[in-house]
Amino acid sequence: MSIIKFETIESKLIKYKEQFVIVDSDLAQLYGVETREINQAVGNNPDKFPDEYIIELTKEEKTELIKNFDRFNNLKHSTVTPKVFTEKGLYMLATIIKSKIATETTLNIIETFAKVKELSRNINAIMKTEEETRQKELANKSNKILEEIIEIEPDILADDEDGEIVETTTKFEFNLGFAKVSRSIKKIKK
After folding, report:
1. 129: left (phi over 0), alpha (psi -120 to 50) or beta
2. In degrees rounded to 5, what are phi and psi of residue 166?
3. What is the pLDDT of residue 176?
4. Cα–Cα nearest to 1, from 106, 150, 93, 146
5. Global pTM?
6. Which of 61, 100, 106, 122 is the most exposed place for a label (fewest CB within 10 A)?
7. Cα gap 15→32, rounded to integer Å
8. What does the alpha-carbon distance between residue 129 and residue 117 come to, in Å, rounded to a whole number?
9. Distance CA 44, CA 52 (A)
10. What DSSP letter does each residue of 57-118 carry, written as one string?
11. Nearest 10 degrees: CA dihedral of 106, 108, 112, 113?
12. How far apart are CA 68 and CA 60, in angstroms?
């Protein structure tokens, strides 16, 4: 199973009252369905979505959402207030929406959430420990997690003038609390 690119999930996550959530319309886009299908599934199963699973935004919160995120401009004149799904709500939604793409997307989102949490725990542990060996071990684990959730593909450019191929690679390195991105270029003879 391939994990959805971190950038894709990150662009859909919104911080709401100290937790990350996904707005129903963004979730519908990820699932390849209409927003009304998501909301209909929730409406048909209200007992499966307690307050900490799904939250209906107030009119003021809707206005704030539209003001802060251009992608929600289409909600400006809508009479419907959007709902946001917490991580628990995503788990529950996966038990209701049975399409293949919805199931795969939910699993990918959950995997990404888990990786981000693990990365966060590792970073916090690095900051709390003074033992250099343990810090390096945690930094290496963090590097592996980053490689899994952030897909950085090499650029391959053909150089027709001298018959060489130029390949650029980008590497993300997390080392003892510092992050760096390096880009290397190598020429390969044809």
Report:
1. beta
2. -105, 125
3. 47
4. 106
5. 0.61
6. 100
7. 23
8. 18
9. 18
10. PPHHHHHHHHHH-GGGGGGTT-SSPPEEE-HHHHHHHHHH---HHHHHHHHHHHHHHHHHHH
11. 20
12. 12
Residue type, 46: P
Q: Which helix (H) or strand (E) holds 23?
A: strand 19-23
DSSP codes of every residue in 114-125: HHHHHHHHHHHH
Q: How confident is the model at residue 123 (pLDDT cuts 50, 70, 90)?
A: confident
At 137-170, the pLDDT tens digits run: 887 787 777 766 665 555 555 555 555 665 655 5
CB 43 within 8 A of CB 86: no
Residue type, 122: N
Write down the pLDDT at residue 109.
77
Residue 42: in which H helix or E strand, if any? helix 35-43
User: Are the C-beta atoms of residues 52 and 25 closer than 8 Å to each other?
Assistant: no
Question: CA–CA separation, 110 vs 90, rounded Å?
Answer: 8
Strand partners, 159: 164
Rounded to whole angstroms, how far apart are CA atoms 120 and 3?
A: 18
Which carries the bigger pLDDT value, residue 185 or residue 77?
Answer: 77
